[in-house]
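thought: fold this chain, then report.
action: predict
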Amino acid sequence: MAEYTLSKKERLNSKTLIDRLFAGGSKSFPAFPLRAVYMPIEPTEEDAPAASILISAPKKHFKRAVKRNLVKRQVREAYRKNKHLLLDALASKNKRLVLAFIWLDNNIHSSAEVEEKVKKLLFHIVERLE
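observation:
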């Protein structure tokens, strides 16, 4: 049975990894209103998750924190429900990945639409894994 949780370990907190992710060497793919930026990394610890995520809803798009939090909650929930698509592929190839979802639009979209776009991005990432 798939585990539909999103633990603290699966959140991307490392400042060095975040800097490496956005400095270059990462791949990016849009599915409006989202963009996924991802980068394969070397496995370091045995209990580390296969994929670590970061979700960004820029203040430039939503001035009010309530709306930024809503968007981040929608993306987090969509990823939580569909992360098995990515994790199964990573486990079979014995790889690790850091992943950032960045919100691109000035409007809030329905949760169903956000989930569809997250699925699309995850499928694309799985296809691109070497």
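thought: worth noting. The beta strands are 27-31, 34-41, 51-56, 96-103.
final: tokens above.
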